[in-house]
Amino acid sequence: MHITLGSTPEDTLAAFTARAAADPAVAGLVLSGSQVHEGMPTRHSDYDLHVILRDGQACELAGLDRFRSAHLDLVVIELAEFRTRGMPGRPDHFARYSYVHAEVLLDRLDGTVARILDKKRRLGADEAREAAAGRLDAYVNQVYRSLKSYRDDRPGPGHLDAAETVPHALEVLFALHRRVRPYNKYLRWELERQPLGDPRWSAERLLPVLRSILGDGDPATQRALFTGIERAARDAGHGEVLDSWGTDLDLLRRP
After folding, report:
1. Angle formed by the axes of helices 125-151 and 219-235, to 10°?
2. Of the candidates 2, 30, 47, 4, which has an alpha carbon nearest to the alpha carbon of residue 106?
3. What is the pLDDT of residues 182-204, one digit of tens each?
4. Integer angstrom CA distances of residue 204 from 113, 163, 182, 207
């Protein structure tokens, strides 16, 4: 199936959404990506659009799933798949953040598309607690591995392990606030517009710490970050996860 590109991405989006809205098999249209993050689009930005089809209904637009151009990036899925896309346990769980600030352009199901989208925007209470605990354990494990290597005069593997602590640390911090960890592109945007509360997690303080750990794995910087995360995790009721490490935590706390 062919898509005619307009002279601008906006023209292409307008033409395509009008075409999709005219098809009764289309249940909803959802816009995501940089265009829904104020201040983030550039002259290179396209429009990321989800086309949600009614379950079990034939639609020629289905053939456009994964269509990509300089103007338009499409995901075309049935409603049943949209319900679970990006959710825990799914192979496409990485897509969760794309829905956090997404905008509904069309909802033919009396708000159903919007309600599904709202469930993706934040972590549920049980989901957040489980995610924070699991990622906290992984974070401690990775910091411990890194600092053991530095202790044993093996800075190479220590640095590599330090770099791997960063994704776990971010997952913990956002899960503690029932937030979906943003893509790195939007990390500063999120921290500036929706702060995580504690001044230690502001963009001005947290991002230089993460860059330092990624840059050289500095053990002192790792320990400083761990100290803050340990305190936040204990305040949120995750002391049991930390205490399961016993005296191994001494290596992470030592000045």
Report:
1. 150
2. 30
3. 999 999 999 999 999 999 999 99
4. 37, 20, 17, 6
Helix (H) or strand (E) holding 42: none
Q: What is the pLDDT of residues 129-182, one digit of tens each?
A: 999 999 999 999 999 999 999 999 999 999 999 999 999 999 999 999 999 999
Strand bridging mode 72-78 / 47-53:
parallel
Question: Which segments of the chain does DSSP mark as H helices, in order?
Answer: 9-21, 79-84, 112-121, 125-151, 155-175, 187-193, 203-216, 219-235, 239-243, 249-253
The tokens of 223 are what? 């320990």
CATH node for 9-121: 3.30.460.10
Please identify which residue in the block is written with the tokens 């249940």. 27
Domain spans of the chain?
9-121, 125-253
Q: State the pairing for strand pair 47-53/26-32.
A: antiparallel
Residue carrying the six token digits 């992984």: 138
* Non-local CB neighbours of 162 within 8 Å, separated by 6+ positions: 142, 143, 146, 213, 214, 217, 218, 222
Each residue of 21-52: b (16+ CB within 10 Å) or e? Answer: eeeebbbbbbbbbbbbbeeeeeeebbbbbbbb
Whole-prediction pTM: 0.93
Burial (CB count <10 Å: 0-12, 13-18, 19+), residue 220: exposed
74: phi then psi, degrees, rounded to nearest 5: -110, 140
What phi, psi does 244 have (nearest 5°)?
Answer: -65, -15
The answer to whether the CB of 227 falls within 8 A of the CB of 219 is no
Q: How far is the C-alpha of 120 from the C-alpha of 115, rounded, in Å?
A: 9
